[in-house]
Design goal:
single chain; about 675 residues; alpha+beta; Rossmann fold; nine-stranded mixed beta sheet; six-stranded antiparallel beta sheet
Length: about 675
Amino acid sequence: MKEQNNIQSQPRDIMHYESDIWAIADLLLAASVKQSDFPAYMMPFFALMMLEGRMLNAMKLVEKEEGLTVKDDPEDFKEAFIDMGCGYNEYIVMQGKTLQNICNNDNTFEQDFASYLSEFDPTLKKLLGIERGKDEKKFLNMDYYVAELRSKKILLSVITAWSKIDLSPYDNSAITTLEEHIKRKWADISASTAGEQYTPDDIISLIADIVATKVTKPKSQNIHVYDPTCGGANLLFGVADRLHTQAGYQNIHTWGSEYNDALYALAAIESRFRSHSQIHYGNTLTTAPFIDKDFDVIVANPPYGTKWSGYEKEIKNDQKGQFPGGLPAVSDGQLLFMQHILWKLAGGGIAVEVHNGSTLFSGDAGSGESNIRKYIFDHDWVEAIIQMPQSEFFNTGIYTYLWIMNKQKPFERKDKVALIDGSNLWKPLKKSKGDKRREMNAEHREAIVKALTDFVPSDICKIFDREHFYYNKQSLTLTEVDVNGEYLKESVALKKIKSVVLNDETLTELKDLDTNAGNALKNKLKAANIDEDRIVIALEDGTNYSYDNELETVISESKEGRKAFGCGTFKFDLSTSKGKKSLKVELVPRTTSDYEIIPHHLDEHENQREIEAFMQKYVFKPYVLGKNVVGVELNFNKEFYVPEKLDSVEDILAELTELEKDMKGIEV
């Protein structure tokens, strides 16, 4: 529908209604409604007043632009109004009745209010939760909360209070501003888990500022903005509005997707009063909305640490190509959303995503998380990552990060990634809001945008080659050596074994054993620890083999004397002859499986030289290289580590001198 601007002169700032709306909460509190339930009780009625106010505005627009009136041209007026696409309510549009009119007569209130609700068009009734069928989604669940308020004997008083919130004198922009403030207050008190994050207004402003500097399309062209986890669409519409009012983009199309019933309904209702806006209902990852559409701008604040095991089968069977980098652990779906976003991002587009730290470093080399990061870095799609201050979000005190994705980085930024540390750019809130105790002001946001725009090293910005974040996890098999650096070079089979001493037990039944006895003997000896248990292998010729813990070597003792073989161990097995089992013992080199973390080079030959040089420098035992796995991770603490400043030697000596003087004074 057309934007409804300049409806009439606005006598008062619309924000004066904020206190009136929150006064309604006092009625709920008096009726024993829990504070955490306030948003659920208030959302449907706030949506009702937004709809009524905007419909009244749309009626004025039809009168002004079409020259039609309800009185003189009822059918034409109705048709023109419906064509505006903002929804319909016969009670409001054709009968001219508002909620305030209904509340003026308490004798007919119940009947009139029921009629008022029933006259919304089917789509709005569905979103509001009016006349919901048994198996239909609740969305704003209006019928339920009307029944609850009625049972608490406060329905009329609550609806009367809402009816006084007259939004008809205000245009869409003003109503949206009020809506953002109200939704933000709801978020302050209602989000029940740290995985469902409402995006604070200062972060929305920062994201919008970043997007405005990165969008390269002419301002006259259409800009398509998408949020795959849009919630009530505060981030989506907030960024779109700032691009329009502050950056001058004229034609902004907004697209969103949301799975929460109530939040989807709020976003969908708001979208009806915006030009070119679509909100999809459903699981973004399994339904893949807007399949044929790529987007110029994608913004998102996906849920943190939310399991996706409930739709694991659909994700694993995805045929659309959303997850080319692989799948993360089912305990956290953030990296699924990151891949979805890149899948939907246009070639020249920009994405700004809010994530917690797990997207940076969770998962070892070869894990799903590391492989996804590697896939994204292999394509050179990460332009920058920005660390936000702690306690910036309403329901978590942890650090959060903005990932800036760009599929067509400027030439000078190819194979480069900026890490920007905004963790100290904040001011304290006068009053904390849940876990949110800090906010970024305009000066802080400007510093971050400048660091991103300049793309040069500074106090808060470091520029790295892309390969800096890669590493080799090189597996190897080490051959252990004794105190003299000697080791068993090859296996030696021991023949004609007479007995085996294991600690205080002498085992002599070693031949012609049945299967059970043979396996029991083998398992008993294999369970022994050569470093802790006393093991002696006695041969028929009088030679004894054992392990010297001090020298870390296998020795033999016989009439010819004592001989050291180097570091090794005993390998116990069974041989089979005519169905009978006999113990078999070998001296074998003692080996340990290990791995080394080695810097990675994107050039394959250079990387191999790096591995060889590392092994030569740091590994002093004989080894055999195994499989090498390449991982990718980021660590802000390491990159921005500032070592503790130590006192100079002179200062320490001076302090010791003073202490010595003090001690002498005490002695005196």
